[in-house]
Amino acid sequence: MSGIFRKFFNTIISVGIIPIIFVVILIFYYQSVSRRNLQNNYQKLCDSFAISSYESINNFAKRLDYLNYLKYVYKDDDEFLKKTSEKYEEIVFIALLDSTGSEIKRYSTYSFSKLFSYINISRKEYFNRIKGSKDGVIGDFQIIRSFPLATIVYPVGDKFVYAVVNLKKFFSYIYQTKIGQTGMVFFISDNGVVLNDSNIDINYKEMEEIVKSDYGNTEMYINGKKYISFFRKLNDVNIYVVLAQEKREFLRDINLIFYSMLFLVFLVLTISYFIAFITSRNLAAPISSLISAAERVSGGNFEVPVTEKSDFAELNELVRVFNLMMEKLNDYSKIQIEKLMDEREKLNIITQNLKDAVILTDSSFSPVFVNRSAQGLVGNDYNRIKDIINSVVKRLSDNKNKIIEFKNKYFEIYFDNIKLHRDNPLMLIVARDVTAEMRINKVKEDVFRSVAHDLRSPLLNMQGYIKLLSYDADEKNMKYIKGLEDESNIVFRMLENILDMSRIENKTLNLNIRKTNLKELLKNIAERFEIRAETKGIEFFIRLPDYDVFADLDDELFLRAVDNILTNAFKYTDEGGRVELMLEKTDKIYIIISDTGKGIEKERLADIFDRFKTTSRSGFGLGLSIAKTIVEMHKGNISVDSEIGKGTRFVIEI
Fold it and tell me: Which of 338, 345, 380, 557 sits most deeply, having the most CB atoms within 10 A of its CB?
């Protein structure tokens, strides 16, 4: 059950987790987008502070154009400085400088006058910029008594007004802006001065990150706490507005939503886990029971039904149908066992009463079944039977003939592999007693051989007389003499076949091997059959290559083999038919003889090369047997293919 349960559980969990994974990805994406949007909003707010601050400073700078008028009205320097201080309430200290940047007069309504030493800006960088200019410049920034101050130098005639301005009056509404609980807005100069009335402790290296660019955001420690800071430079004024908020508070809302959604995902995963567990168990339990029941059924046990119940109606229905199937199989099995016992008993009776010896062995030739005839032949000792079978198989592998001699009798052996529903196939061996047939064939051969010897001499004499008669015969008688000569040649060829078969049986037929031109040999054979083809009205085609084909063979015997096959081809081809003789050479030499005769039945093809087997009643059935033997003596092979009504094709391969 654990394997099935695990597969169901993993599948259900996987199906549930896939969409959750996408949800988690979306959550992280949402957090990233939300954080980016929040940063953009804070940056926009910081930019708006920078714009409004710059406009305030720019408006004040435009108001300073009135200084030239005041200087024109008030010639006295003290009176001019006093009226200027009264005119611009943002100024906390004012001094008049000569053309070299040195102080001439000073005035202050506050106690700031004592805080400023003698003024000389001749060495200040901004003094070089203001000389020859009609516009004022912003000089240094500093914090005095918690006041953020900026120095503004403005040309008036050939002199300069040196004014210290309280920036708090410009940025008061920005300082009063509240951003959460920890947010703040302050200004810093490009030289690292924090322009704020409250105490702000910032590391100088972190401030350097701000003044490197005109705008952006960075993380920095302010008063020992980590802040996310957004900054923007006030155009051509070397002041940066900085909007800072503790990182914890800055990300609080986003993190709250993020972790809430993660909690929901975890909750869904937990619920999915328990649902998958319960569902998998309800699915796996009955299926596991069905598998166990199926294994019992495969082992032949149909008695134990499946009792497992499920919350799924479909599985309960499957269990019910499976139990019903087991009942049916149980009934069917009992019927089949009875039938099998009956069939086995019948088969045993048949095999035990067969005259043929029947032996069934495994792949190692150990007997599995031996019928009564086989027991009478080889006994009951299975070890001895195994040795006999090994000996028979070896003898048959060395001899192409399937007939062996055993205990002064001849047996024709048949082998067949039987593939049962098991790993090891069985071998069926059937031995048929052919002693009577062999003795009849022996008598037949002896009779034929004796008759052939006795008829050969009179037949030769007859052919001599026929030859003498042909010398003085007229045209009419010559026709009859020619017929006698042809018929005598047929009889002589039969006698030669019988004698050749006798020599083959006695192994006295020796080969006279020599290098032979097969093209010329077949051409000579073809010339002998051209007259027969013309007489019978058969088309005879000879297809020989343009080059000579040589082979080592006994030309007389090989001529006899080809002659026998051609004789059969002409014999069974009717008038108007076709016989073809062809020679081909590739890696081997092929002699092909085909005809358009009546053909041979498929079931008789295997017997046409056997002695005394013929497709008609005329002849002894020795011609093809001798041809096959001669070809095999030359280490060649002969094959045949035929179709009823279309003809036969012999192929000699050497």
Answer: 557
In this structure, the number of other CB atoms found within 10 A of the CB of residue 159 comes to 16
385 domain-assigned: yes
Distance CA 537, CA 551 (A): 33
Asked if 51 and 34 count as a contact pair (C-beta separation under 8 A), the reply is: no
Separation between Cα atoms, residue 333 and residue 574, nearest integer Å: 62
The tokens for 464 are: 């001599």
Alpha helix positions (H), 76-180: 77-87, 125-130, 168-175
Is the C-alpha dihedral spanning 516, 520, 526, 530 positive or negative? negative
215-222 and 103-107 beta bridge pairing: unpaired
pLDDT of residue 581: 94
What is the chain's Cα-based Rg? 62
For residue 449, the surrounding DSSP H or E stretch is: helix 435-472
H, E, C per residue of 520-572: HHHHHHHHHHHHHHHHHCCEEEEECCCCCCEEEECHHHHHHHHHHHHHHHHHC
Could you tell me which of 67, 54, 62, 57 has the C-alpha nearest to residue 166?
57
- On whether the CB atoms of residues 520 and 596 are closer than 8 A, the answer is no
Question: Is 44 domain-assigned?
Answer: no
Q: 639: domain range?
A: 514-653
- Compute the distance between CA of residue 534 and CA of residue 434 in angstroms, rounded to an integer: 45
Token pair recorded at residue 379: 């006994």
| Inter-residue contact 562 to 591 (CB < 8 Å) | yes
Residue 464 included in any domain? yes
Final residue in a domain of this structure, among 461, 482, 505: 505
3-class DSSP state of 221: strand
Rounded CA-CA distance 161/135 in Å is 12
Amino acid at 25: I
Task: Give the DSSP H/E element, type plus range, for residue 107.
Answer: strand 103-107
Smallest Cα–Cα separation from 566: which of 528, 622, 535, 617? 528
Bridge partner residues of 102 (DSSP): 120
CATH number, residue 151: 3.30.450.20
Residues 507 and 480: their CA atoms lie apart, in Å, by 40
Residues 553 and 610 in one domain: yes
Please provide residue 185's backbone torsions phi and psi, each rounded to the nearest 5 degrees: -130, 130
Contact 511, 634 (CB under 8 A): yes
Cα 563 to Cα 1, 336, 636, 652: the distances in Å are 78, 61, 17, 13
Alpha-carbon distance of 524 to 516, in angstroms, equals: 13
pTM of the model: 0.43
Chunked mean pLDDT (size 10), the chain, 654 residues? 67 76 83 86 88 80 79 83 84 88 84 79 83 76 75 87 82 76 83 72 76 84 88 81 87 84 84 78 73 74 70 73 78 73 69 72 74 72 74 64 70 73 71 74 65 65 72 72 70 67 63 88 88 87 91 87 89 90 92 91 76 49 78 88 90 92
Last residue of a domain, which of 395, 412, 433?
433
- For residues 556 and 637, membership in a common domain is answered with yes
370 and 484 together in one domain: no
Do 530 and 642 have their domain in common?
A: yes
What's the confidence (pLDDT) of residue 486? 66
Beta bridge mates, 91: 165
pLDDT at 138: 77
**CA-to-CA distance for 136 and 161, rounded, in angstroms?**
9
Q: Under a CB-based contact definition with an 8 Å cutoff, are residues 101 and 126 in contact? A: no
Same domain, 166 and 96: yes
The reply to whether 347 falls in a domain is: no
Same domain, 586 and 621: yes
Say whether both 649 and 546 belong to one domain: yes
- Token output for 565: 């096959």
